[in-house]
Amino acid sequence: MPAADARPSPFIALAICLVFALPITGWLVPWHGLAATLIRELLFWLMSAAIVAYVLAVEKLPLSSIGWRTPTATSLGVGILGAVVAFAAMAAIYLYLLPLVDPHYAAKAATVGALPILVKVEIVLRAAIFEEIFYRGFMIERLGSIVRSRTVAAVISWAAFTAAHVSYWGWGSVLIAGVGGAVLTVLYLWRRDLSSNMIAHALTDGVALFI
Length: 211
Known about the structure:
Elements: H1 10-20, H2 24-28, H3 34-58, H4 73-101, H5 105-113, H6 117-147, H7 150-169, H8 173-191, H9 194-210
């Protein structure tokens, strides 16, 4: 007789959530400079591929199970709307509150801003793809199945996303990433459309990094 349920234990997905939420790229590549940045970026792409491979080959589920839809005009419109909301909220914090909380944040941002333009474009695209696949799609959906609440899973995902930025950007990033992550989390819960989230994320980071 065939097995009643051939799917892997949900605790494997939980382990992926726990491990990938750690600052492992910073631990593996703790030094600074362009070469270190490129190596860390490669590691993020490999993590993205690992999640997709796990869903397709191990769980044997479609990518729609982590919120992926074929992008449409609506996806683009919703993504632009999300970016406008996120950037407006984050800009106010960046201009008025962040200098009081972390006066060194601007210097850290300038370090990234000084990278070659193609590297900055890659960082924007990688962040939008990896962070939306992992924090919004995979983490919310898989933790939601474990705790039986997508809302609870979304709060955990938001907290993990915010904390992940502290290791590089410092505690001031709690404000920026916290607000931006909240907008992206609500957007995902509303639409469950990773393409909209990726568009919103890329536009928000792109405007912040290039302007």
